[in-house]
Design brief:
Strand content: under 5%
Shape: flat
Structural class: mainly alpha
Helix content: over 70%
Number of strands: 2
Order of helices and strands: HHHEHHHEHHHHH
Distance between the termini: 38 Å
């Protein structure tokens, strides 16, 4: 293949970013404007029109909000802010296949065959773990967080009126944060595989790693409270310990390969 100049690389990057931005923009607009059902009559359009984003938010509310909790707007602009933020978030989410494809097409020509054999399985595992983490956060951690917080409303005698932005922001942050936590093992295994870190360094510094992980969990889930932070930490610990066991196999293979190469060099001398 013809080697591209820096200008050609930048032009290709610009074109691919343009495709990504247009896709995100179109899908965000679709979430905001397109109705959830298309067989609307004039009366429904006037009084019962619901765009796609509204329907998705209703589903999230029905599945995650515990009984006894109610949402309030609190400020006059809160529902409008949520409308735009949620539309953009879902627009980016549904654009993920296009984003992944454009990134793949941009970096693929620069990779050697052995690099493809190493990187692409890890990318696939990364995506699967992230999706699995998001599902775990949505169906397990987010409901647990709201139910745990509702207990303290009852203990303090407070009415469980929750700001609508707090509720949905907590859902979005918890889901994405859990997805990110689930990708930690594959990143660790990749770093061990290429020799940037060792499993011994991880096991010898467990308390510092897990202490930092708790601080990060507290920062990225400010509305989740201690329950969410501890639950995320426990999940992170289990994933890291499992990853260390797998990474040790790659580490032994790399050490054996390096020893054989060293032995071959000594024999050639």
């Amino acid at each position: 293949m013809k080697e591209m100049t820096m200008i050609e690389h930048l032009m290709e990057l610009k074109d691919r970013l343009k495709v990504i931005l247009i896709t995100v923009g179109v899908l965000t607009l679709a979430m905001m404007v397109f109705p959830a059902e298309f067989n609307l009559n004039l009366e429904k359009i006037m009084y019962a029109y619901k765009p796609l984003v509204s329907v998705i938010l209703d589903i999230i509310k029905a599945q995650l909000m515990p009984e006894g909790m109610r949402l309030i707007g609190l400020t006059i602009t809160s529902p409008l802010e949520l409308y735009f933020i949620a539309s953009l978030a879902f627009g980016v989410m549904f654009s993920a296949p296009v984003i992944a494809y454009e990134i793949y097409k941009y970096v693929d020509p620069a990779l050697y065959p052995h690099e493809r054999r190493m990187i692409y399985p890890f990318i696939a595992a990364f995506m699967l773990l992230f999706i699995g983490g998001c599902l775990f956060g949505y169906f397990i951690i987010a409901p647990f967080t709201f139910k745990a917080m509702l207990i303290f409303f009852n203990l303090t005698g407070a009415e469980a009126f929750v700001h609508i932005l707090d509720f949905y922001n907590t859902v979005f942050i918890v889901v994405v944060a859990t997805g990110a936590v689930f990708t930690a093992p594959i990143i660790l295994i990749l770093l061990v595989k290429v020799g940037l870190i060792s499993t011994k360094a991880i096991t010898n510094n467990r308390k510092y790693i897990y202490g930092a992980a708790y601080i990060v969990a507290a920062i990225i889930t400010p509305d989740g409270g201690m329950f969410t932070n501890v639950l995320l930490l426990l999940v992170f610990v289990a994933l890291i310990e499992g990853a260390v066991l797998i990474a040790k196999r790659y580490e032994k293979e790399r050490e054996r390969r390096e020893a054989m190469e060293l032995l071959g060099e000594e024999e050639s001398k």
